[in-house]
Each structure stands twice: as structure tokens, then as C-alpha cells.
Specification:
The complex is a heterodimer of chains A (111) and B (116). Chain A has 111 residues and is mainly β. Chain A contains no helices and twelve strands. In chain A, the strands form three sheets. In chain A, strands 2, 5, 6, 10, 11 and 12 form a six-stranded mixed sheet that branches. In chain A, strands 3-9-8-7 form a four-stranded antiparallel sheet, with no helix packed on it. In chain A, strands 1-4 form a two-stranded antiparallel sheet. Chain B contains no helices and eleven strands. In chain B, a hairpin with a 2-residue loop joins strand 7 and strand 8. Chain B is globular. The chains are: A mainly beta (111), B mainly beta (116). The interface between A and B is medium-sized, with 22 and 24 residues.
């Protein structure tokens, strides 16, 4: 079965510093990987996805993610964090049409 | 494009009553919709997959008689929580799957259910 894991419950970073939210995956075959962000009491907003092609995927709000096949990772990154980036982030993998989500990582960006 | 709405956004009900939550795709047709449940500060747990015109497919451990799902049209799916109890209090989120949008799912804003 396909799965993703987010090893960090929370990531703290100072505004203006680069941020990384980690995700590793376990799939059979080619992975379809996604990142979503959730603000309090809201649904999920799509950030970016990897289907095939370039390993560096650029997404919304200045976020990007790097697909690393050898390390089975799909870490989310941003060069300069904003306080408004503080939210809950989910990595997900598609499995026969369904999305399987990681545990979520809370990102706290402090001014 | 690809907007999904949910109604109501928040509902409070008494124990034993039934609550219906609507999920609509506003500007596209979705052959498949998904229903998720999320507890505070936890991940989304898939409850069921809803296909237009057919019975929903429930995930293991989800009571189909308690969580009734109807997908009567390509733009509307409903989740009815029957005889709700306090343990059913949760955040319910739907999503619509669109193959033409590179197989993406688009999520609704969620419904906060509180059962007293």
C-alpha cells in the first residue's frame, strides 16, 4: 500500500529564513505526490504536485518541492518564510484515485 | 475554476438528531467525490468514496448506516450523519476529483459538526 510520512509534528522558523517541511514516501510504481496547506477551520489548499518530469516542482505562494527517488523524499521548501505561512501542511500520495495523507506538520513562522 | 463548496460550514445539533452536509462542485462536474473526517490537529481520514449514480464505497471501520452518502448528480454529494452522538463531533471535508485537471482533487472548506 502507498503511504507517506511526515516525521516532524512541528517546524519552527524565523521570518525571512528558509523553511523545509519533510515528507518521505513508500509506493509501488511511480508516485503521484502532493502538498496541501490547511489554515484553521478551513479546507485544504493545493500547493503543488509531482507526477513526472523535473524533480524540482514549483507551486503556489513561492513554495517548491524536490522529488528525490533515491531517498524516497518529497520535501517542501521555501527560500524565505513569511509569518502568514504559519499553518498545517500535509503531504499526500495518490493511491488508485484516493489520496493518502501524512500526519501533518504544523509550521510556525515567528517574526 | 474548480471550486468546491460545503454547506453548512458549521452546525450544532442535539444528540440523536440527523445532520445533512452538502458538497457541491460549482463550476465543473465531478464523477467522484470523497468524504474525509478530521479530528483536531490530526490528519484527514478518508471515510468513503462517492461515485455519481452508484453506491458509495466506505473505508474499513466506517459505519455505512450511520454515515449515509448520496451522490445524485455530477455536482452534488451529501453526507448524512444519522442519530448523531457527541463522538461524531468532528470536521468533515469533502473533495471532488476531476480527471481532466491532471487527476487532482479539489477540497471544500469543511463543515464543523458539534453534537451536544
Amino acid at each position: 500500500a502507498q503511504s507517506v510520512a511526515q516525521p516532524e509534528d512541528q517546524v519552527n522558523v524565523a521570518e525571512g529564513n528558509p523553511l523545509t517541511v519533510k515528507c518521505t514516501y513508500s509506493v509501488s510504481g511511480n508516485p503521484y505526490l502532493f502538498w496541501y496547506v490547511q489554515y484553521p477551520n478551513r479546507g485544504l489548499q493545493f500547493l503543488l504536485k509531482y507526477i513526472t518530469g523535473d524533480n524540482l516542482v514549483k507551486g503556489s505562494y513561492g513554495f517548491e518541492a524536490e522529488f528525490n527517488k533515491s531517498q524516497t523524499s518529497f520535501h517542501l521548501k521555501k527560500p524565505s518564510a513569511l509569518v502568514s505561512d504559519s499553518a498545517l501542511y500535509f503531504c499526500a500520495v495518490r493511491d488508485t484515485g484516493k489520496l493518502i495523507f501524512g500526519q501533518g506538520t504544523t509550521l510556525q513562522v515567528k517574526p | 475554476g474548480a471550486v468546491v463548496s460545503q454547506h453548512p460550514s458549521r452546525v450544532i445539533c442535539k444528540s440523536g438528531t440527523s445532520v445533512k452536509i452538502e458538497c457541491r462542485s460549482l463550476d465543473f462536474q465531478a464523477t467522484t467525490m470523497f468524504w474525509y473526517r478530521q479530528f483536531p490537529k490530526q490528519s484527514l481520514m478518508l471515510m468513503a468514496t462517492s461515485n455519481e449514480g452508484s453506491k458509495a464505497t466506505y473505508e474499513q471501520g466506517v459505519e455505512k448506516d450511520k454515515f449515509l452518502i448520496n451522490h445524485a448528480s455530477l455536482t452534488l454529494s451529501t453526507l448524512t450523519v444519522t442519530s448523531a452522538h457527541p463522538e461524531d463531533s468532528s470536521f468533515y471535508i469533502c473533495s471532488a476529483y476531476v480527471a481532466t485537471y491532471y487527476n487532482e482533487q479539489f477540497f471544500g472548506p469543511g463543515t464543523r459538526l458539534t453534537v451536544l
